[in-house]
Design brief:
- The complex is a heterodimer of chains A (about 900) and B (about 100).
- Chain A has about 900 residues and is an alpha/beta fold.
- Chain A has 32 helices and 36 strands.
- In chain A, the strands form ten sheets. In chain A, strands 4, 5, 6, 7, 8, 18, 19 and 20 form an eight-stranded mixed sheet that branches. A six-stranded mixed beta barrel of chain A has the order 31-35-32-34-33-36.
- In chain A, a hairpin with a 2-residue loop joins strand 33 and strand 34.
- In chain A, helix 8 (about 265-280) packs antiparallel against helix 13 (about 370-380) and helix 8 (about 265-280) crosses helix 14 (about 385-400).
- Chain A is globular and about 70 Å long.
- Chain A starts with a helix and ends with a strand.
- Chain B is an alpha+beta fold and about 100 residues long.
- Chain B is built from three helices and four strands, in the order E-H-E-E-H-E-H.
- Chain B has helices spanning about 15-25, 50-60, 85-90; strands at about 1-10, 30-35, 40-45, 65-75.
- The longest helix of chain B is centred in the middle third of the chain and has 12 residues, at about 50-60.
- Chain B is elongated and about 55 Å long.
- The N and C termini of chain B lie far apart (about 45 Å).
- The chains are: A alpha/beta (about 900), B alpha+beta (about 100).
- At the A-B interface, helix 1, strand 3, helix 7, helix 21 and helix 22 of A face strand 1, strand 2, strand 3, helix 2 and strand 4 of B.
């Protein structure tokens, strides 16, 4: 075959594959040419790791290398489509600076925190890691060590990490980067439905008539879902898309109505919409009466900043001081029915999630101030837009919600979640859909979209948060701890009842000196966290030891003391869970290069080094005050462990992982179809680690409202993931589309219609919209909550010195911190470095024009950046935006570390800055 | 050799204009199109992945192109970079960003 023929064949094959995805007809000849072009290739199913959509991909390997990838035409999520990020799934692992050997800071042949990185053996790396862990654990106890994990963890990885920390080291200081993206969505689900994760599914896209995007830019962040929405709009003429955003973006190009808002204006708009639904008699009274209750919550909850200015620089102090007391502005005063200028102590900052039942009349009292005039004044974000135009758009939006004949889907991502009141907005969106009786049914619902491939499947479902256990259970619930201890075969009171440090608290803990050992897995927190200068300085200058496991060198690698080379996703077995509860699996396709190892192997090897006598003896837990425990103490459980057959010399590896029941899952296994397993190979054992751990994890889910199918089912050729709960019906594994509704969800009985069966927060005090009046809890099993939440202003706003809003986000060509996408140098060239999007007149006022270099500075730091006044983002006057993928810009140095006080998720979307010529 | 399959969705009222613009682009072949849906199947060949990504961005930015997705990609003949520990160390050599820029 000549090279020309080969090229022609490949082109025919690629044309044929593309035509299949497009649903266009294909000739037999084209099929035959495809087969010839791909001779010798081995195709297998995979999952894209580049966002939370969960697109299926097909991966072709030949001679131990990945040679081609394509969107999987059989995958219901993407139906053969693939976006530019997913397109590079196979290219990501072949960068020249791929980590292939452990690297440790050394001087004179031994670890030195101030030394340069030197390649070391795994033995040396793990020996030092063990020594440093013992030092921190011995002096500070379980609360002195921590893991920052990931929404990119595979399910077995997250499970291993959570079990090692919680059951082994008895520390709840494990928290994922999903805290940065999904935590507000999680609390929204838990408070409204009592159970996490969406009721809706992607199938709704082809059924909806109205899409409301709120704080989301799917054209860049979820391109395949955007393609489906675009397709719906083109093929279903009544379709309307509303885009609620702080600046016009790529999603605006196809949207019918762009609603440009001020930061936090969304809180007011949701109340306006609720008020209209009530005023126009659009409430589905039967649905609400049968299936809902009304609720309100604490308002004076602070902003998740430190309660002291001790660690703040002089420039930061005025903002940080507002954590304890704020002075209400005019809009807050109206929205909260208080007086402007009133000083309000943030008395509920440590009980921010407190909420209670209210009557419908009290709910109406809450939303009453949110008239069109008031809300337009609070929320209009573009000074060049007339008030009449803005009001007309809000009226159109209200019309769309109130139109009984239209199916309506509200979709949101980081603009809502990364928000000082993110939980509130999540609950407000559900309130609209619940008032209308349009939630969790085909084409209708509030649908929280996800940013990472397994933020749902691992971070949330497996429970790698500092407060969680698998299947929505939590560490501060004694019944949940008992169930976990039973499944894990642990003595009673092994698990620590005190909630651990969340992601930002871990970083603050480095600065405080509370955290002495930190292991970072599958993430890059020293680039992706707000107010970076504090944490990066603390990691480098304080007495602590930071380990980073990653595929490539990152900013976090530069900050670390030890870097462990990790396997890329196609170099290991794995499973992810996407934003519609779909659990998907892939086999290892190729071996990791050099000495790179799977994250699971790293943790198992580490667990071999610790014995029960060290970790299950009495431990000091500062602040632990729980019934049945001596204050500040976790009891010694070694005697009870002895009765269970363990000895003080048993290793954590033996007790937690290589359990006799787990070792029954033999390797090799027919499900592998000849594929390798890097974890098993490096362990030198013959049990199928990932399968055993998944089957153990599955026990948490079955008959517990989170049912997963057996491991092998997900690897079946016919399966492209299954949406939980997955139950067996007539011998077949059946997934669940719409949750909580009869006929769709196996947990809803015949005749119930709907049952919001989640068990969390389902007995509450009662009160007015402002306060509790009856503390005796009222049960509300099966009901969802319609919350009233007031408008609250952002804690830091532009002023005379810092006169612009700064917002941050993602772009199409790069993903998150770019540690992988930037490795494909061509991607880097396509969007070489982050730019600052700015209105041309704002630039002109500062003597700047497009492509000039400027300083952008906040109270927390400054960076140099190129100005773009005519790019993909069209900014209103007064706001600038910068993507956070670029490690040479590090915009997160400038971002305020204010959090939603309930979810503890940072607000990356709003702080004050100034811009001037460099 | 980098070959990719790209699916475009064009505004049906302007599909001829889009086809005309595509015909003028180097390295692009229109394999199939469907007037009713505006779908156009394009095969792009480029010397390296950089040229390919630039080509994709150019197509996506054409007037009346509503949507562009990459469907499949062949890159098997591209020599994969062999990872080098020196290269990783070089990437780590710049100082950690532990102090504010000034």
């Amino acid at each position: 075959m000549t090279s020309l023929t080969r090229r022609e064949l490949l082109k025919s094959s690629i044309a044929a594959t593309t035509a299949v995805a497009a649903g266009l007809p294909l000739s037999q000849a084209a099929l035959a040419q495809s087969a010839a072009a791909e001779a010798g290739w081995k195709w297998d199913k995979g999952v894209c790791r580049m966002c939370g959509t969960g697109c299926g991909i097909q991966v072709a390997t030949k001679d131990g290398k990945v040679v081609a990838t394509k969107g999987d035409p059989d995958a219901p999520v993407n139906r053969g489509l693939n976006c530019i990020k997913g397109y590079f799934n196979g290219k990501m692992m072949y960068g020249a600076d791929r980590l292939t050997q452990p690297l440790m800071r050394m001087r004179d042949g031994k670890f030195d925190k101030k030394g340069p990185f030197v390649p070391v053996s795994w033995q040396v790396a793990l020996d030092e890691m063990e020594r440093q862990f013992r030092k921190a654990y011995g002096t500070k106890g379980p609360h002195g060590v921590a893991i920052i994990g990931s929404g990119q963890y595979t399910i077995p990885e997250g499970y291993t990490a959570a079990k090692l920390m919680k059951a082994g080291f008895r520390s709840n200081n494990i928290d994922p980067n999903a805290r940065h993206c999904m935590a507000s969505a999680v609390v929204g689900f838990m408070q409204v439905f009592g159970i996490d994760e969406p009721a809706n599914v992607y199938d709704d896209i082809e059924i909806a008539d109205t899409f409301v995007l709120c704080g989301a830019n799917p054209a860049e962040a979820h391109p395949v879902l955007w393609s489906r929405m675009t397709d719906r709009k083109l093929n279903h003429k009544p379709t309307k898309i509303f885009n609620i955003t702080t600046y016009a973006n790529m999603s605006s190009d196809i949207a019918d109505v762009d609603i440009i808002i001020k930061p936090n204006g969304d809180l007011a708009i949701m109340n306006y919409l609720a008020r209209e639904i009530v005023a126009r008699n659009a409430v589905n009274t039967e649905f609400v009466a049968k299936h809902c209750v009304f609720a309100a919550g604490a308002v004076d909850i602070g902003y998740g900043m430190r309660p002291t200015v001790k660690f703040a620089t002089d420039a930061e102090k005025d903002t940080v001081a507002k954590e304890m007391t704020v002075v209400l502005d005019k809009h807050e005063a109206i929205g909260q029915r208080r007086q402007a200028g009133q000083k309000i102590e943030q008395k509920d900052r440590t009980a921010a999630g407190r909420h209670w039942l209210i009557s419908f009349d009290e709910y109406k009292k809450g939303i009453e101030p949110y008239t069109l005039d008031f809300v337009a004044e609070v929320a209009k974000g573009d000074v060049d837009e007339s008030m009449d135009s803005f009001k007309a758009k809000l009226r159109m939006l209200a019309d769309a919600y109130c139109d009984r004949s239209r199916n309506i889907l509200t979709c949101w991502t980081m603009g809502v979640n990364q928000h000082q009141r993110g939980v509130w907005v999540n609950t407000q969106i559900y309130a609209l859909h619940l008032l209308l009786g349009k939630h969790g049914i085909p084409g209708n619902g509030g649908f929280s979209l996800t940013g990472q491939p397994s933020a749902c499947g691992t971070a949330r479902e497996v429970g790698t948060f500092s407060h969680r256990l698998p299947a929505d259970m939590v560490v501060d619930n004694p019944a949940h701890r008992a169930r976990a201890e039973k499944i894990w075969n642990l003595p009673g009171k092994t698990l620590n009842p005190r909630v651990g440090y969340d992601h930002l608290a871990i970083l603050r803990g480095l600065e405080d000196g509370d955290i002495g050992f930190l292991w970072i897995q599958v993430t890059n927190p020293f680039q992706s966290s707000p107010n970076l200068n504090h944490w990066n300085r603390a990691a480098r200058e304080m007495d602590n030891f930071v380990v980073v496991s990653d595929v490539y060198p990152t900013i976090s690698g530069k900050v670390a003391d030890l870097i462990l080379p990790a396997a890329y996703m196609l170099e290991k077995w794995g499973m992810y869970g996407n934003a519609e509860r779909r659990t998907q699996a892939w086999r290892q396709q190729v071996d990791p290069p050099g000495e790179a190892r799977t994250d699971v192997w790293m943790m198992l090897e580490f667990s071999k080094r610790f014995r029960l006598r060290e970790v299950w003896s009495e431990k000091t837990i500062p602040g632990l005050k729980v019934e049945g425990y001596v204050d500040n103490k976790l009891p010694d459980v070694l005697a009870d462990a002895g009765k269970m057959g363990y000895t003080p010399e048993s290793t954590l590896y033996e007790v937690l992982f290589a359990r006799p029941e787990n070792k029954k899952f033999a390797w090799p296994d027919p499900v592998a179809k000849g594929h390798g397993n890097a974890t098993v190979k490096a362990l030198g054992e013959n049990w199928f680690v990932e399968k055993a751990l998944f089957e153990e994890y599955r026990q948490f889910t079955v008959n517990y409202q989170h049912d997963l199918a057996p491991f092998d089912v997900y690897y079946s050729d016919a399966v492209r993931g299954l949406r939980w709960p997955v139950v067996q019906v007539d011998g077949k594994w059946q997934e669940t589309k719409w949750r909580f509704s009869e006929g769709n969800d196996p947990y809803v009985k015949k005749g119930e219609g709907f049952n919001f069966y989640g068990g969390a927060f389902k007995a509450l005090p009662t009160g007015t919209v402002d306060a509790v009046t009856e503390t005796k809890p009222t049960p509300l099993a099966g009901k969802a909550k319609i919350f009233f939440r007031p408008y609250a202003a952002p804690v830091e706003q532009p002023d005379a010195n810092y006169d612009l809003w700064l917002t941050t986000g993602r772009i199409l060509e790069h993903w998150h911190t770019g540690s992988m996408t930037r490795r494909v140098s061509e991607l880097h060239r396509a969007q070489p470095s982050a730019v600052m999007y700015m209105h041309a007149e704002d630039a002109k006022k500062r003597g700047l024009k497009r492509n000039d270099t400027a300083w952008v500075e906040s109270r927390r730091g400054k960076v140099k950046i190129v100005v773009d006044t005519a790019g993909r983002n069209r900014m209103p006057k007064g706001t600038v935006s910068v993507a956070f993928f670029d490690e040479s810009i590090l915009i997160n140095k400038l971002v305020l570390d204010a959090l939603d006080p309930i979810s503890r998720e940072p607000d990356f979307k709003k702080c004050a800055c100034k811009v001037y010529r460099a | 050799m980098n070959i990719s399959g790209i699916l475009l969705v064009a505004d049906t009222a302007h599909i001829d204009a889009v086809l005309e613009q595509l015909a003028a682009l180097e390295g692009i072949e229109v394999s199939q199109h469907d007037r009713a849906s505006g779908r156009i199947v394009v095969v792009q060949e480029a010397a390296d992945v950089g040229a390919e990504v630039a080509g994709f961005s150019r197509i996506r930015a054409l007037p009346h192109v509503l949507c562009a997705d990459l469907i499949c990609h062949y890159f098997g003949d591209q020599p994969a970079a062999e990872p080098q520990v020196e290269s990783a160390l070089a990437s780590l050599a710049t100082p950690a960003p532990d102090t504010p820029q000034s």
